[in-house]
Amino acid sequence: MPTALCLAAVAHSQTSGRWLVTSWTYSGTTTSIKNGQGGQQQWPPNGPPLPPPTQTFGTGDEVTVAMSGTITAVVQWVDANGNPTTSPPSPAEVYLLQRTAVHWSYGGEDVSAEPGTVAESLNAGLPDAQYQSSPEPNCSRTLTARKLVKVDGSSGTITLPVTLLASLRFTCASGVSGNATATVTYGVTEVAPADCYDFSGYPNSPPGPPGSTPCAQDAAAKLQGPLLDGTGYYTEGRAYTNQTAQHALEQLKKTAIFYVFGHGGSAFQSCQTFWNNDQWGYMVETEYAKRQIVNSGVPEERVVALATLPAGALNKVLLAVFQGCYTGYYNASWGSPVHGAVAKGADCALGFTGPITDPGAHTWATRFWDNLKNGDTVYRAWQRAASGLFAYGVSARKFEGEVEQYLRVRPARYGN
């Protein structure tokens, strides 16, 4: 039977700080040449890079404007008062999005066409960066390079240099005139990760080829979205199957979105199961629940209890979804994964208080992550996903923590 919606506001400490760019250094030159005349200027060490002086051009003029040098961002962990500290939260695995852009303008209000053959380039010194050229009105365009990096922030300070070479060259066509100039920007922002697990068909293989992770991959792709625009979660390589409960627990401590689709528990015994190398693993809330499973013959290393985590261990988690039977069913002895996640700091958790079955469970998963991607609140995403699937058990849901009627996962971020 579907249960009534139950909210439990569990107090937990707020995130005590954030990663912030605290300083920049610059070293480079700007070049501006017209018809062989011009020169270079050194960037001031405290920047930003000097833009080239505006070059006025007309028919037949040969123009080059270029900017070359190194920009370095110093990113530090700052406390709630904005003061740098050498004690960031552990684990200090940090995902940073680097974005370098050069904006070219080589037209004027009276120019409706580009001034001739244009050669433009941007090398941001970022291996495997993604580049994009965006034409804009009035004969201007922006060239952008984006790169996501994973760095160790355990010292509290991260230094990120970018080596830039950007140039614009053209010979002005007949009857055209205008002005040429350029500006350069370099930004660094933190990106929150998401971890998704799929064991929905084990101990037989899930739908698709053996070892595939269709629901985990689908959720990861929808959470990532337009990552390089700074609005999505980092999910590359984070759609899992054939993993242990211990692996999941370690990821849970450092992720923003956590999702598991697989078998759960049975009446009065709430857990989330994992399947690794032909053996079951279990995530439960209480130490009592762990002892019961270990006493049944399961190796102790294959059972993890959320209650053993220190207070605030899951403060980074914005949303945890345990899609399995009885993962949201709570009693004082066993607790539940949903209750346990919020008790240790997660903003919001969702599970189910009874059995859920296929094909409705897979349909719900696809709809739910679609709905979140499109901007629904967590509650609305669940509600719309469950429409017409009453017979498959997905209406018997359990929320804990943040008031899910208002919580959205966009823009991407950690929990509070």
Explain this structure.
With 416 residues, the chain is mainly beta. It has two domains: 17-190, no CATH class; 194-401, 3-Layer(aba) Sandwich (Rossmann fold), CATH 3.40.50. The protein has helices at residues 214-224, 245-252, 287-295, 337-343, 360-373, 378-386, and strands at residues 17-34, 37-42, 55-57, 62-79, 93-105, 116-123, 130-136, 140-152, 157-172, 178-190, 194-198, 239-240, 257-261, 272-276, 279-284, 303-305, 319-323, 348-352, 397-401. A six-stranded mixed sheet has the order 12-11-13-17-18-19, with helices on both faces. The protein has a five-stranded antiparallel sheet with strand order 2-1-4-9-6, with no helix packed on it. It has a five-stranded antiparallel sheet with strand order 3-10-5-8-7, with no helix packed on it. β1 and β2 form a beta hairpin. The longest helix has 14 residues, at 360-373. The protein is elongated, with a radius of gyration of 27 Å. The model is unreliable at 1-15, 108-115 and 205-211 (pLDDT under 50).
